[in-house]
Amino acid sequence: MNDIDEKQRVEQAFQELLDSYLNTNHRKKVDIIEHAFRFASQAHEGTKRLTGDPYILHPIAVATICCKELGLGSTSICVALLHEIVEHTPYTIDDIRQEFGEKIASMLEALTRISGGILGKEKNSVQSEKFRTLLLTMSDDIRVILVKMADRLHNMRAFEAIQPEKRMLVANEALWLYAPLADRLGLYRMKTEMENLAFVYKHPEDYAVIAKKLEETASQRDEVYDAFINPLIKELDTLGIQYRIKSRVKSAYSIWRKINDKGVSLEEIYDILAARIIFELPQNDSPHAGKVWETRLCWAIFGVVCSLYRPHPDRIRDWITNPKANGYQALHLTVMGPNGHWIEVQIRSERMDAQAEGGFAAHWMYKVGAQDSDNELNKWMATIKELLENPGPDAMDTLDTIKMNLFSSEIFVFTRTGEIRTLAAGATVLDFAYSIHSEIGNRCTGAIVNHQQRGIDYTLRSGDQIEVLTSDCQHPQESWLSIVKTARARYRVHAFLRHENEKKTL
Which of 93, 110, 189, 435 has its CA 20 to 30 A from that of 426? Predict the structure, then answer.
């Protein structure tokens, strides 16, 4: 390919980025984006990736993911365009600061600190510190982590551009860290793609088997879906609302994991086929009235589905009344469709769908500036920051605790007065006590759970109502570390025990 062709490719890729940006609701700061592109192009001039492509195509692709798939604005786009400069060219952070100002320079500096791999070939203090830096950076400005994740996603989309000896590390990090982070931030599309790309590389034979089975059963699924959806459309039309229905097939990685975790066959997995019903709200000037209608319409559609098909009683999920910690809202149910086939149905409004597709952090925290201290995502990040700024003597133990918390699914429980709290699945009475206050946790002797007295090690379930019991004579024991399941509780128990040991040595 000659130089003219390469320049045309680069200019075309950048123009596609600009077009995506101009189609957003962000303020149109085109000049600074163009400046970042020209600056990065000059810095990377003559440099190629392993694929032979001009290096600048990678930063453009990362910026496009930030804009088009994550909904980020001009500052993040500029950081993405510049993200390789400090590490791979003679330019410094001071040069960036002089050209683009303090905000872009500080974000780029944070991004550079977490560049490269987090895991390394083995767990060690250097890699632990990188992980710690990454998560602290996330709690300070989550956009830095979103740019990092966009960078990692593009690298995985072009594995051939990564040095062969690093590919397995990249795949492992995707499954160990970045996919769970994407899930926690509500970036489900990114999570699924990262998992699948890593799965294809790590387990090519298993992937081939599942992909072949999915291909062989595609026509059968189409027939089942059509037979399921046609009567549903007729009934939904009677509601007089605007809606659309999308089909979804479970990802190969999710199928593989469920087969291995549950010991089931492909045919025994309930939610391989799903239908997503997305509706528009009637125009209304009142935000409160809009929310009421949104909830009513979700349940009205739920009623239509259940009037046609029998729901599985154990597979109904109300994420509207109790949104996930990352803000995800929807109604989920699995119903017996035609000819005995199980089909998952997801019901959500256009607003819920936009949030689910783009992610809570990208679309809300920085787009509209919401900084609600009661937001569950903010609480989670505050816990991470607290743990990392005051770590225990064993850094890896702290990081493993965070990793455990990262992977955890959630349950919803209630205080005695009806206040709802989100905890990691598997959380105990002791975890709940520490979620209220450290002193309540330290003095916890048990709880009244659904009007029955339970011990501190009782495992909670969604919907439990809990009243903590305390005693001034109670205090944390070493054995409590095997009872608590959440990062906050583990940190508080560790902190108390350390303090007591320090007092003994004085």
Answer: 189
Please give the structure tokens belonging to residue 326: 């990352």
CATH 1.10.3210.10 location in the chain: 3-186
Amino acid at 49: R
Q: What is the pTM of this model?
A: 0.73
Selected residue with higher pLDDT from 464 and 385: 464
Residue in this structure with the two tokens 């860290």, named with its chain if needed: 177
Q: At the topology level of CATH, where does 207-358 sit?
A: Beta Polymerase; domain 2 (3.30.460)
CA atoms within 13 A on the CB side of 58: 29
Looking at the chain, which residues constitute the CATH 3.30.460.10 domain(s)?
A: 207-358
Assign residue 85 a region: left if phi > 0, alpha if psi is -120 to 50, beta otherwise? alpha
Structure tokens at 70: 């994550």
Angle made by CA atoms 326, 149, 125, in degrees to the nearest 5: 100
Q: Is 79 left (phi over 0), alpha (psi -120 to 50) or beta?
A: alpha
Side-chain-side CA neighbours of 414 within 13 Å: the count stands at 11
Cα gap 112→101, rounded to integer Å: 17
Q: For all residues of the chain together, what is the average pLDDT?
A: 83
Q: Is CATH 3.40.50.300 the right assignment for the domain spanning 408-505?
A: no
Q: Tokens representing 92?
A: 């410094």
- Interhelix angle 487-505/429-436, rounded to 10 degrees, is 80
149, with CB counted inside 10 A (0-12, 13-18, 19+), is buried
pLDDT value for 328? 80
Q: Which of 176-185, 265-274, 283-292, 367-376 has the lowest mean pLDDT?
A: 367-376
pLDDT tens by residue, 198-215 = 999 889 999 999 999 888
Helix-then-strand count for the chain, H and E: 23, 10
- Bridge partners, 310 (sequence order): 336
Domain with CATH 3.10.20.30 in the chain: 408-505
| Structural contact between residues 69 and 150, judged by C-beta atoms closer than 8 angstroms | yes
CA distance 186 to 191: 9
254 close to 192: Cβ distance less than 8 angstroms: yes
Sequence-separated (6 or more) residues with CB below 8 Å from residue 83: 59, 62, 108, 111, 112, 147, 151
What gap in Å lies between CA 315 and CA 144, rounded to an integer? 37
Query: 3-186 belongs to which homologous superfamily?
Result: Hypothetical protein af1432 (1.10.3210.10)
